[in-house]
Amino acid sequence: MTDIRAFLKEHGPLLFDGAMGTCFAALPGRADQRCELASLTEPEEIAAIHRSYLEAGCRAIKTNTFTAGLELAQDQGEAPARMIRAACRIAKDCAAPYGAYVFADIGPAPEGARLSRGEVYCREADLFLAQGITCFLLETLPSDDGVAQLARHLKERCPDAYLIVSFAVTFDGVTREGIEGQALFRRAAALPEVDAVGFNCVSGPRHLLDYIRRLDLSVLGDKALSVMPNAGYPTVLGRRTAYQGAPDYFGGRLAQIVRAGASIVGGCCGTTPEHLAQAAQAIAALPPVPVPLEPARTAAPRPAPHANTLSDKLDRGERVIAVELDPPADDDISFFLDGVRALSEAGADAVTIADCPIGRPRADSSLLACKLKRELGVEPLPHLTCRDRNLNATKALLLGLSMEGVHNVLLVTGDPIPSTDRDEVKSVFNFNSRKLARYVSGLNESVLRTPFRIFGALNVNAANFAVQLRLAREKEENGVSGFLTQPVLSAQALDNLRLARETLRGKILGGVYPVVSHKNACFLNNEIAGMRIAPEITALYEGKTREEAEELAIEISARIAGEIAPCTDGLYLMTPFRRVALMTRILERLAH
Fold it and tell me: Rounded to 5, what percent of the chain is helix, strand, coil?
C-alpha cells in the first residue's frame, strides 16, 4: 500500500469518512447505546457504516474507538483493549478491498483522571500498534496537553507512524478549555514528530473555512493541514439531536477548504456517507492545476488602548489600595454608590466587587463595575467567577466590560451554591480560574484593544500553602499578573505572604480585614473558608463595646498594613458589615 506521505504528494487530497457516532445513533434502537461498544456487540452494523463511507469515495476511515480513552484514563484493565482490538479488526477488514487507510481514532482524554492525558494517549497508541495500525488521528482536542508526549512515544515505537493532531474550536477559534486555536496550531506544527495539524468538530464547514483562511499556514512547513468540520450545527428534534446541513452544501464547502490549503479533509458530527459522497464529487471537480493558496486574511490594526489607572500605577511601582464593598442584595443602589464615593474620596485606588459571595445572589458585580466607571469615574475591580457561566457567556461579559472601560478583573473559581439550595439551584463549573485566566489572556492577545489586567486570589491561610503557591504559579503561566490575598491575621499568614513574595512574579495586594467584635472573629474562624485569625487577636476583642472594638480594628489593621508592606505592592481592604465609615477611618489612618 502506498505510503500516506507519498499518496498526499502524488494524489492528494485524502478524503476521510464522517461521523460514526451519529450514523450509529440514527439506526433503529441505537440512539441511547454507546457506539464504541457496538464493535463488540453489533460488529456488522459498524462494518456496514464503514463500507458505506468507503462506497461514497472515502480513502481513509477511523476506527470506532473515539471514547476508548475514558476507561484507560481510570486504568480499567482489559475493557479498552478488547474494544480497540475489535474496532481495528472490523476497520481493517472493511478497508482492505478498497485500498483505504485505517486511522486509529483517539479522542480527548479526560482531565484529572488517574492517568495523565499523555499517559492515556501513549497507552492507546501501544494497543493500536499491537494491532498493526500505524496511522493515528488524535482529534477533537481542547488543549495540547499530552500531545508532545504521545508524538515522541509514537515515533520511538514506530518511526514510520503518521500522526494527525486535530483541535476542536468554536467559530471564533477558541476551544472549550478557553485556549486560542491559533496558539495550539502553532505549537503542534512545531513538533517534529507530528505529520499533520488541523481542526475538527464543534464548527460547521463555513466557519472552519473562514477560520483557516485567517491562519498563517506557513508555520506548517511540509506538514499537512487537516480539516474535518461538522455538518453544520445541531438542533433538537423531539428527544434526538440532529444535524440538518445539506450534503451538497457540505461537499461544496469542503472543496473550498481544499482550495484554501487543506490536503486532509473529512467530516465530523452529523456527516453521513451522502455528505462525503458529495464532497468526493466536489473535490474531484476541482481544477487539476494547483490553485495558489489563498493568503491569510490579516486583521486590521487595533485602535489605541484605553487608559488603566490601576494597572499603570502598579507598573510604575507605586503602592495601591483596593477596597472591597459587597454588592447590594436588592435593587436599592444608593448605599452602595454613596459608599464607593466615600471610599474613593478617602484614598481608595479601586473598589473591588464580589461575584455572589458564598454562592448567594447579589447584584451583578460586572454591571455594578460598569456603573461605577461610567457614573463615578471610579476604577472598579469586579470579581468574575467560573460558576454559572460557560465560555460564551464569559466572553460576552468580558466584551461588555471592555466596552465600558473596565479593564481589571479578579478571576476566581467561585464558592459553590449552599447545600440547602442545591435541590433548586445548581452550581455550574465548566472550568477553573486557571483556565479562565488562559482564556482571558487569549482575548487580550487576539481580540481586545485594551487588555485586561488579570488578578487572581491567593489564600495565605491555607493549611498546605505549598499547594496554593503551585496553583498561583500556574495562574501566572496562564496570564495572571497580580494577586489579592486572604486577610493576614496570624503569624503563619505573614510567613506565607513573605514566601509568596519570594516565589511569585506578579504584584501582590495584601489582604487586611478589620475584625469588629469577638463574635465576628469566632464566626470567621469557624464558618468562613480561607480565614484564620490568631487566638491572641481574637482575645483582644473580648468584652469590648462596638466603639472600642472599632478603635481596636483600626489599630490592628494599621499595624498589619505596616507589617506586610515590605512583601506587598499594595493593600486589599475588605469592608465588614457595610461599615464604610470604619473603612474611611482606616484609609485616613494609612495616609498619615
Answer: 45, 15, 40
**d(Cα 117, Cα 107) in Å, to the nearest integer?**
11
Nearest to 404 by CA among 295, 306, 486, 312: 306
Q: Alpha helix locations (H) across 197-291? A: 205-213, 247-259, 273-284
Q: Which domains does the chain have, with CATH numbers?
A: 4-284 (3.20.20.330), 350-458 (3.20.20.220), 481-592 (3.20.20.220)
What does the pLDDT look like over 488-534, one tens digit per residue? 999 999 999 999 999 999 999 999 999 999 999 999 999 888 889 99
Report the sign of the C-alpha dihedral through residues 474, 475, 478, 482, in that order.
Answer: negative
Residue found by looking up cell 434526538 in the block: 240
Alpha-carbon distance 389 to 178, whole Å?
13
Separation of alpha carbons 324 and 365, rounded Å: 11
Reported as a single tens digit per residue, the pLDDT across 177-225 is 889 999 999 999 999 999 999 999 999 999 999 999 999 999 999 999 9
How far is CA 176 from each of CA 91, 164, 212, 394, rounded to the nearest angstrom? 30, 20, 18, 12
Round to whole Å and give the CA distance between 186 and 199. 12
Q: Are 157 and 151 in contact (CB under 8 A)?
A: no
List the beta strands (DSSP E) in 229-364: 234-237, 240-243, 264-265, 320-324, 350-353
Cα separation, 91 vs 66, whole angstroms: 13
Q: Which helix (H) or strand (E) holds 318?
A: none
SS3 280: helix
**Cell digits of residue 264:** 486532509
C-alpha cell of residue 12: 492528494
Nearest-10 crossing angle of helices 117-130, 147-157: 30
H/E stretch holding 183 reads helix 181-189
